[in-house]
Amino acid sequence: MTNDSGQKWSPSEIDFSAVFAILWRRRRLVVLGTVIATILAAGMSLLIPRAYRSEAFYQLGSGGVSIPLFKNSSSMFTNPNRFLSYAHSMKWFSDKENRRMAQQFQEAQHIQKWVDPLYAFSKEDQKQLAAVGSNMNNAVLGLNLAYEGMSPQKAARMVSFFGRYVRDCLMYVTLFNYISDNVSEAHIVLQKNENNLSENRFRFEQQEKKKEDIRAILGKYPDAARVEIRQLVSLQDGGARFLSPVTQLVGIESAMADLRREAAELRRNREKLQLRVEFFDAGKAALSQANEKGELLFQKLQTAHRELFAKKDLKRDPVREVFNELSVDQQSFDRTFNLAYRFISGPTVPTRHVKPHRAIIVLVSFFLAGVFFVGLSLILAWWQSHKRAILADTK
Predict the structure, then answer these.
(1) pTM (two decimals)
(2) Contacts of residue 71, Cβ cutoff 8 Å, sequence gap at least 6
(3) What is the pLDDT of residue 126?
(4) What are the residue ranges spanned by the domains of the chain?
(5) CATH number of the domain at 52-171, please?
């Protein structure tokens, strides 16, 4: 093999002087080609849409939320169908933006990439702190939210939407558990109360019958009323029958008085339980109407609370007591959802884009173009030196 000067090239070694000579003769091709390709790449980079990154930290209460609650909620807010449905119902975005979001968020990981939970104890912390134990002792303090949009305002608005969306999921799961647990418990306790009332009535009736029987004995044996009260009786079961009939009547009256007080307390509890059953039944109906929207469910629950007690006499102690208990629950939820769940920082409105990285594009283009045109120069030099031989062989 020979170069343009007629010198032979050995296949086992590279003659760098010959290579440099070739490149020097074709320096205009290498330099101009590299410069033109770099300029074209820089110009093309101007056509790539810019992306702006907004970030924020969303706090989940002063002590965070438990791991089970967060996991139950995260299975909801990583659901693309629910995510898109909530975005459409919020009416924060135009139809074009909603269609773009439908293309962008098709799988759970497309949402997860922008939502990063901050745990109270990381895995490394749990290894070092034996007192931390299992995840039940851990908590999610908040969420690092981010998004890259085509403008600073769109990116910030999307991060704000993420915060509200996660809050809505937590609201729904919290209220769902609250309603489901309490509606079952209220029905069960009410049934037990009814059973206790039935038993109380039966025992009261038995005491009345016993009182009538004792009075019949006194009528049959009038001298029994004058029997000395002080006498030795057995303390074993059934020993009271040896007491005088008058003494037994006093005991029966006392037992009946206790049963009356017990019945009054049971009826009072029944009234309270009936109110709770009525309220949580309304909450259960609201679950099917809220369409898995936490904020809407909370509004319906508050409406059910107002409507229920608007028809009740709040001057009555049992009614007032249940009203206060449920009001405390509503206030606690309101404080958690509207005050404890909030942005601590951000969403930021970026002033510089993060994509495309034009400096990197220009540098990479310059390097690749230089390599390409150097290789092209060597190939052209080889072709010129072997062109005659190759053409002769083809003839």
Answers:
(1) 0.72
(2) none
(3) 52
(4) 16-48+356-394, 52-171, 175-343
(5) 3.30.1890
